[in-house]
Write a structure and sequence with these properties.
Strand content: 15-25%
Distance between the termini: 31 Å
Helix content: 25-40%
Shape: globular
CATH superfamily of the largest domain: Uncharacterised protein PF07075, DUF1343
CATH class of the largest domain: Alpha Beta
Order of helices and strands: EEEHEHEEEHEHEEEHEHEHEEHHHHH
Number of helices: 12
CATH architecture of the largest domain: 3-Layer(aba) Sandwich
Number of domains: 2
Largest sheet: 10 strands, mixed
Length: 431
């Protein structure tokens, strides 16, 4: 196995990089001047500037969705196909599909892409089917390029993981075209998944807000999990970004935002999602079916008292507006809900997970009739799947405050933070 990085250091001749204690051959792009106009350059740009040499002479499969774009908003599959230098034999779509037309928990059925004629397959949550399709299509190198949002329960990273497993078993190379973590990669926060709570919203023990790019996660997955599952690591190449560092938010990158999924319309949505996605595990609407998913939270019979209780806490970087809304689908569809609109007033002070826990604790105190959602039976709680640790729910039920709930995962998080450090690629400014 080799783990390689295409970044701005190596097209001028390979140098050895030491990451995670292992000497890695490094492939390089175009030098410091490549960070044009102060804008981050993504992995696909670095690959294109290198004339797609990394993929030359191979049968290529691509896992992507509408976010696999270049700064001019053209899609990478179109660019690679039109270049005549990349032989794309198949495209694979994750949850929501390659074209992004499906809602949560769904993929897209097979189709021939009308623009390129390339077959497009559904790769959502089916490793065995992915392996069959890779073999059938004759894929020799599998490329992954999707904009992640930095939360463990966002499923694209698990599509990547299952694809890495399948590729490892078949002896197929795996190339990750890296993109920014839009909510910054400064640190990992929140509970770490316990194996008994593994689902497709969290297959392996990483933190709820992992603080890594997909390229860094691929390194961690390969070293810690793929070998155990597949019996061998995958031959992994990470095509690095140019100009990104771990304390950037998406707004700092100069890149265009394309919604990674139907309910992730803006970078502001991504900022709150690592926390307020926990409301999926409650009887409250998390804002699906509105124009502000994960920022509007509420249910019938909730009123101003919730916002007042929250604003009285003066939570760092957050403010709450009394809000009323009517979802057009999902929970409480067609019913008027009262609740709050979460406004982030200071990104660098805002902690989405602690804020969401404070919101849940306050809601239970003032509107306790709205409890947990169960999954597969009355004692199977969806919150345990999202947090990955039933101790979080039990602490809330016992009346713990936010500091006490956060203490539940402190030891697990410290262990994950140490592991994470060995697989980071980019510098974290200010550290």
């Amino acid at each position: 196995m080799s783990t390689r990085h295409i970044d701005r250091r190596t097209l001028f001749g390979g140098t050895a990089a030491v990451l995670g204690g292992a000497a890695l051959p490094v492939l390089t792009a175009t030098g410091a001047a490549a960070h044009r106009g102060g804008r981050v350059r993504t992995g696909i740009e670095v690959l294109a500037d290198a004339d797609f040499a990394e993929l030359a002479g191979q049968a290529v499969g691509v896992i992507s969705n509408p976010t696999g774009i270049l700064p001019d908003l053209g899609h990478e599959v179109d660019l690679m196909h039109e270049s005549g230098k990349v032989d794309i034999v198949a495209v694979f779509g994750p949850e929501h599909g390659f074209r992004g037309t499906s809602q949560a928990g769904e993929g897209e059925d097979y189709f021939l892409d009308p623009k390129t004629g390339i077959p497009v397959y559904n790769a959502y949550n089916d490793k065995d089917r992915m392996a069959e399709l890779l073999a059938e299509a004759g894929v020799e190198t599998l490329v992954f390029d999707i904009q992640d949002v930095g939360s463990r329960f966002y499923t694209y990273i698990w599509t990547m993981y299952l694809a890495m497993e399948a590729a490892a078993g078949l002896g197929i190379r795996f190339v990750v075209l890296d993109r920014p973590n839009p909510v910054s990669g400064a640190e990992a926060t929140g509970p770490v998944l316990h194996p008994e709570h593994a689902t497709f919203v969290g297959l392996k023990p990483i933190a709820q807000r992992h603080g890594m790019t997909v390229g860094e996660l691929a390194r961690l997955f390969n070293a810690e999990f793929v070998t155990e599952a597949a019996g061998t690591p995958v031959d992994l190449t990470v095509v690095e970004m140019d100009g990104w560092h771990g304390r950037m938010y998406f707004e700092d990158t100069g890149l265009p935002w394309v919604a990674p999924s139907p309910n992730m319309p803006t970078p502001g949505t991504a900022a709150v999602y690592p926390g307020t996605c926990l409301f999926e595990a409650t009887a409250l609407s998390e804002g699906r079916g509105t124009t502000q998913p994960f920022q509007l939270l509420g249910a019938p019979e909730i009123d101003h008292a919730w916002a007042e209780a929250l604003n009285g806490q003066e939570l760092p970087g957050a403010r709450f507006r009394e809000a009323y809304f009517k979802p057009v689908f999902s929970k409480w569809s067609g019913e008027v809900c009262g609740g709050v609109e979460l406004q982030v007033t200071d990104r660098r002070e805002f902690d989405p997970i602690r804020t969401a826990l404070a919101m849940i604790i306050a809601q239970r105190a003032v509107f306790g009739q709205y409890g947990w959602r169960s999954q597969d039976g009355p004692t199977s709680y969806w919150l345990d799947k999202l947090t990955g640790d039933e101790a979080v729910r039990l602490a809330i039920e016992d009346g713990a405050d936010v500091d006490e709930v956060s203490a539940v995962w402190a030891e697990d998080l410290a262990s994950f933070a140490d592991l994470r450090e060995t697989h980071l690629i980019y510098r974290r400014r200010g550290r």
